[in-house]
Amino acid sequence: MTEFFFSDLMMGRLFRICVISALLLCYVVLSGALEHGERKKEQIQSPDKNSSRLKVKGNFTSSNDRRPKAVTPGKKVKSGSKRVFMGPRSDISCTRLGGICQPVRYICQDRYLKDKCSGAKTRQCCMPVQAWSMLCAGHHNRVRACDAYGCGAFNSQRGNGLYKAVDLVCDDYSIINTIFSGSLAGPVSRKDPAGYQFDGVKLLSDVHCVKIFNIRPYRYSGPVTQGEALGYLLPLQEQFPGITSHLELQMCDGTDPSPFI
After folding, report:
1. What is the pTM of this model?
2. How many domains does the chain have?
3. PANTHER family given for it (predicted)?
């Protein structure tokens, strides 16, 4: 009886020891597995965190970067809801034409050219007076005097308005020369108050733009040099007997070309 009781007691102790050992083993295995899972999770998430940080940093710099952006000269850029005009960064566009940049409140001998100077819009390029070469071969640039059909000076009376061009004396079919180097920009035409149409060509450069009427140009486009033969004068005597034969010189902007001739 005593032996049976002692054997039963030993079996109970061994059972408890086995259960405790099994629980400890399970705890160790589970702890290792959890620790391995946490490490693996951190390794997987670490690139995402770096990339998210980079994205946030990129978004911050793009939205809060107040550094001025490079802008090409003479273009309009948006600044919020307003448009800001960015002019040239230097005066080289003016100086290479022989002009000088100055405030427009100063007197200019010739004329002001816009968008050629750096700084405020009130600072423009003043060009010096430069005489053009002779237009009509064999004639100086002489303004047509008054005859039975009117006067050839700028702002002279024409019909119900003022004449915004200058007539230069020239013989019928005489050669017309280029008055300054530039480019031909196509044909032009106009009608006078009586309905007569006068044809010609447009000549322009970086500084000047003129329309020359009552001539037949040899061509209507391409570069030309000062003094080059441009065309010939069309006859006027057939339609206007007794008129002083002439060509018509008009500035593209309607100003007076007299200072240049």
Report:
1. 0.55
2. 3
3. LEUKOCYTE CELL-DERIVED CHEMOTAXIN 2, LEUKOCYTE CELL-DERIVED CHEMOTAXIN-2
